[in-house]
Design goal:
This protein is of the alpha+beta class and 557 residues long. Helices cover 25% and strands 32% of the residues. The protein contains eleven helices and 29 strands. Strands 2, 20, 24, 25, 26, 28 and 29 form a seven-stranded mixed beta sheet that branches. Strands 10-9-8-13-14-15 form a six-stranded mixed beta sheet, with helices on both faces. The longest helix is centred in the middle third of the chain and has 27 residues.
Length: 557
């Protein structure tokens, strides 16, 4: 883990005008007020919209249901359905006459076409290029399925950077050019396969004699050094991919119509520990390493908050090359061949989990060749059900359960939502800036980076100085003048893909009076990083006013 450690912090406050002289600053533990916005196309979430797909026993869409045909429960408590629209074949159907007008919820007239906004996320980090390109080619060939109200945006992630290949577009020729460009990007699947052979093949072979695994003593309930290193690498990679996908959602937060996230995934393990040891007959106790429910939570929470349904695509599929590889040749024992499919299940469960939690589908194996056809078909007929929860801003997760009073029907919808706090939203905004660059939600923050100095091991200390604009901060009167409270966040991403946690450092700025335009506070700190090339992002947020000031810099050892 590339953890930026703040070793020493000092605040020297300066001003461009005499009226602001004599300022001082001190660290403060005062809790932040709510209000920091999301990065990107900011949307204030007041109403939870749940897209509900209803089918009969044969899997065919069921139409004509009314609000009283549904039962909505949140955390086990029944709630009224405050907003209801049926979308049938891509058109809105007339809802109840007494339906209230709810701020933030689209009011759709009967017969109005309802477009779908497809945000396509391309994983360049895990898949082989041939597999990735095969899926991209099929999506490009099916672009004619887009309706006149539909639109598509495309982003790609290579393990270090999240790049926007196209903003929202309704032009098929333009999107075809975008996908041709996407296929020229290098894919890093061969590197992932090399990692896998390096860390797991020898360890797995040593544990088996013939067809019977030897008995394991208690010490083997823990990972050995190589296994732990590989499991930590897998966990770090998955955290990076989740951060990138979440950043993409926040960067395209507020398009019109149905929101769909088409996620081309190259083989992300749900359980990094089991994937690393490659031996499902062995029980391992490693509480410090996480499983998919924790690792994928930021992506699921962001998608559900913003109203995106995830369609997760199994880019590698189940290929003959995998099943007939030298490692699992016909002469290998049953346990080896069984482990192959258990690993496949590990990867596929990631896709099934994120799809189920957001009301979408996992498109596995051969379904990767019919992505747009299946997604377009699945998103043309559904029910839009809305309710307004009581927002607390406390990072609590809430379960959403929908059922129908009509027997014999099946429904599919998101499983819940997260009531994100302002601190969590601001930390996610900083991570978005790290991966996606600055956006409309942040203003420039002047930053100077000093010369790094080597410390013990593979660490280095990096002095940084930033200038905090004062005139736009929300301040309160004190007995000595005015005071403003801000939060400093620091994030780092190194050249190996290692990323940091994001510490939150409260700073209190005491001033003799309201700061004039152009005044700033100078804040100096030392950050400890891994000795490698790093992208460093610092962001100062004004929780009370909602402003975010950010800066990024490259740091070389």
């Amino acid at each position: 883990m590339n953890l930026p450690i703040v070793r020493r912090s000092t605040a020297a406050l300066a001003a461009l005008f005499a009226a602001a002289s004599g300022l001082s600053a001190q660290a403060s533990g005062t809790p932040a007020a709510a209000g920091a916005p999301l990065f990107g196309e900011t949307v204030e979430v007041r109403v939870i919209n749940v897209e509900v797909v209803v089918t009969d026993k044969d899997g065919l869409p069921v139409t004509g249901l009314q609000p009283n045909d549904f039962l909505l429960k949140v955390d086990g408590e029944q709630l009224p359905i405050e907003y209801f629209t049926e979308v049938r074949g891509g058109d809105a159907i007339e809802g109840p006459a007494d339906e209230p007008v709810i701020p933030g919820v689209p009011q759709l007239a009967p017969g109005t076409p309802v477009g779908t906004s497809y945000l396509v996320f391309i994983d360049d980090f895990y898949p082989l290029q041939r597999d990735r390109d095969k899926v991209i080619e099929r999506i490009s060939a099916d672009l004619g399925r887009l309706g006149p109200e539909d639109r598509m945006a495309v982003v790609a992630y290579d393990g270090l950077r999240l790049e926007m290949l196209s903003s929202w577009s309704q032009s098929v020729p333009e999107l075809e050019r975008v996908f041709r460009k996407a296929m020229t990007r290098p894919a890093k699947g061969l590197q992932r396969e090399a990692d896998d052979r390096r860390f797991t093949h020898d360890a797995r072979s040593d544990r088996f004699t013939g067809n019977r695994p030897r008995l394991l003593d208690s010490t083997q309930m823990r990972l050995d050094t190589d296994e732990r290193a590989y499991a930590e690498t897998l966990q770090e990679q998955l955290q990076g991919i989740v951060a990138a996908a979440s950043s993409a959602l926040r960067g395209f937060a507020n398009p019109p119509g149905r929101k769909v996230f088409v996620m081309l995934a190259g083989g992300w393990p749900y359980d990094p520990v089991q994937y690393a040891i490659n031996d499902y007959s062995r029980t391992v106790l490693e509480s410090q390493l996480k499983r998919g429910d924790e690792l994928l939570a930021p992506l699921i929470g962001t998608a559900n908050q913003l109203g995106y349904t995830i369609y997760a695509v199994d880019v590698p599929g189940l290929t003959e090359e995998t099943a007939a590889s030298a490692e699992y040749a016909a002469g290998s024992n049953f346990s080896d061949r069984n482990t192959l499919f258990q690993r496949e299940n590990n990867v596929q469960y990631t896709l099934q989990y994120v799809a189920t939690e957001t009301g979408g589908k996992a498109l596995l194996n051969g379904q990767r060749e019919e992505v747009l056809a299946q997604v377009a078909e699945d998103t043309r007929s559904y029910y839009w059900i809305g309710f307004a929860p009581t927002w607390q801003g406390n990072d609590s997760a809430h379960k959403v359960a929908l059922s129908t009073r009509v027997d014999g029907l099946r429904i599919r919808n998101r499983a819940g939502y997260v009531d994100f706090s302002s601190k969590s939203q601001t930390s996610m905004a900083v991570e978005s800036i790290l991966l996606f660059g600055a956006g409309p939600g942040s203003a420039p923050l002047p930053l100077e980076v000093g010369t790094p100095t080597r410390v013990s091991g593979n660490r280095m200390n990096v002095p940084v100085t930033l200038r905090i604009p004062l005139s736009q901060l929300t301040s309160i009167a004190t007995d000595k003048g005015v005071s403003a409270e801000v939060e400093l966040r620091i994030a780092a991403l190194d050249e190996r893909g290692g990323r940091s946690e994001i510490p939150v450092i409260p700073i209190r700025l005491d001033m003799p009076g309201k700061a004039p335009a152009g005044a700033y506070a100078t804040y100096t700190t030392i950050v400890q990083l891994r000795r490698a090339r790093n992208e460093l992002v610092l962001a100062v947020s004004d929780p009370a006013g909602g402003a975010i000031y950010s800066a990024r810099a490259e740091v070389n050892p």
